[in-house]
């Protein structure tokens, strides 16, 4: 177990990066608490796997330092860092039995055979493959193979951290849920520091205590699931998280008055905005009320998604999504109003706080 | 899915059937025909039964040639397979080195057999050949025309030069199909270089190695052109392999009957050995 400190980490895959755009990972400066469960969330190509491989030591960062419990490990190999990592696609050693696969990381480290046996049996029970221990690993299904990959990560009791790189991609949906809750249970039981990379918001939000949202090579927000939902600090977080994502509407802001097209609404605070910044208003579809009062909208279509309906509409020519309860009515002349407490104001895509 | 039966479909296989018939079945049956008859010329044939087969199987000449053939195959397999794996493991995986290495590796494979033979025949000559002359100049007593050991070394080095590339290319194809994640996982698991080879690379190369092994075995067991050009089967009979002996018997002495019997035995040996290798090497798969 370890506290992981990333000091001004930057990484470029090419030699001699010239501009900011050459960096796959822009500056990351952050500390991961010992025993925390973190999710790295972001779309494909945002740099999350790069960051993970830098932590595990498979990649050397172009710039910056990595510390485990205050000790500089930047130059250390993966083995020297004592990290476990589980990959997107199951990696198993075909010619070995399930048992030998799990014992492999321990035997490579010259752990006494009695201890190996004890740990492997424990993991076999945990991943539910005890009855197949003596079978060749080759004949297993994709999710059983991935369980072995997970098991090889978990079998070492002394690891500093366990890193997961989209480990449930190949798993069936119902098994995903089972495995995720098993991981969660393991985390509570053993208190490993866990970092979990995913592009699936549900996975990230259910697994992690803290979600790290990445976009275009940088961390845009670190927060609890509730913070990400209620106060997205960047418009990207707003529409990446939530289904549908946050409505972001171009807005003119003057004191506490926000002008959206021809409509004006009042804020309950005075945002402090630098002159010349592009300003936008963000509001979650859940906090938009559809009724007979407020700003006129034109309904384009209604999607019924079960317990609620998603109304796709236009407000002053801009698309807006509204969540309406299953039996909520849609008036003939629909109008919308916003919950003032749920409004976020963005200047140049970054949130302008209430406190300013 | 419902199967439709249409007997006209048999006509579809007719072209292939004809091709195989003329290129393989009919020649083979002709050989069978010769092997059970004797002739004294004038196209007059007499039934000889299994006499020729008995003769061949009791001739020391046949067993000696077979022994030389097996020895040759064992030696070149023992060199080419490990050497091929070693080279493939050390070939670059990306960058400009990949096409360069691949082309260099493929070059010997593009040279016709008789040209390979001629190249080495000249190369090894003590009077004008670069290799032979250089070895003599260094004071080594090298002469593949007179010395049995030197003749064998020349043939083996030539075959290794000519065919190791095939093993390399096949192994390389197997190696590049291994996803990067396997190597990363092995690093995480703390595997040694040997363990990576033993548990990741070797299992992934197993199928192509089987193919390389069979191809090299069959080819080396049927080797004819190169020793024919380089040593002509000598000195003495020391490099007279089955194929060379067969041609001597059939074309040189015009003993069609014994030659036909011998080629059938030869064919059956290759078939049998290939089948044994294949069965042994694939059986470990089924234990899983």
Automatic annotation (TrEMBL), chain A:
* Species this chain originates from: Mycoplana dimorpha
- Would you tell me the protein name for this molecule? Carbohydrate ABC transporter ATP-binding protein (CUT1 family)
Query: Membrane topology per the record?
Result: Peripheral membrane protein
Annotated InterPro entries: AAA+_ATPase, ABC_transporter-like_ATP-bd, ABC_transpr_FbpC, ABC_transpr_MalK/UgpC-like, Mo/tungstate-bd_C_term_dom, NA-bd_OB-fold, P-loop_NTPase
What Gene Ontology cellular-component terms does the record carry? ATP-binding cassette (ABC) transporter complex, substrate-binding subunit-containing
Q: One Pfam family this chain carries?
A: ABC_tran
PANTHER family (UniProt xref): ABC TRANSPORTER ATP-BINDING PROTEIN (PTHR43875:SF14), MALTODEXTRIN IMPORT ATP-BINDING PROTEIN MSMX (PTHR43875)
Every copy of the ABC transporter domain together lies at 4-241
Per the annotation, which location comes first and is thus the protein's main one?
membrane
| GO terms of molecular function | ABC-type ferric iron transporter activity; ATP binding; ATP hydrolysis activity
Where does this one sit in the cell?
Cell inner membrane
Q: Member of which family?
A: Belongs to the ABC transporter superfamily.
Q: Which UniProt keywords apply?
A: ATP-binding, Cell membrane, Membrane, Nucleotide-binding, Transport
From TrEMBL, chain B:
Name the residues that span the membrane.
12-36, 70-89, 95-115, 122-140, 160-178, 208-225, 256-278
In the bilayer, the protein is annotated as:
Multi-pass membrane protein
Q: Which UniProt keywords apply?
A: Membrane, Transmembrane, Transmembrane helix, Transport
Q: What is its main location?
A: membrane
Q: Where in the cell is it found?
A: Cell membrane
What does the record list as coiled-coil region(s)?
none
- List this protein's GO terms for biological process: transmembrane transport
| CC per GO annotation | plasma membrane
Matching PROSITE patterns, A to Z?
A: ABC_TM1 (PS50928)
Q: Which residues form the ABC transmembrane type-1 domain?
A: 66-277
Q: Is Cytoplasm one of the keywords UniProt gives this record?
A: no
Q: Member of which family?
A: Belongs to the binding-protein-dependent transport system permease family.
Listed PANTHER family: GLUCOSE IMPORT SYSTEM PERMEASE PROTEIN GLCT, TREHALOSE TRANSPORT SYSTEM PERMEASE PROTEIN SUGA
Q: What is this protein called?
A: Carbohydrate ABC transporter membrane protein 1 (CUT1 family)
Q: What is the scientific name of the source organism?
A: Mycoplana dimorpha
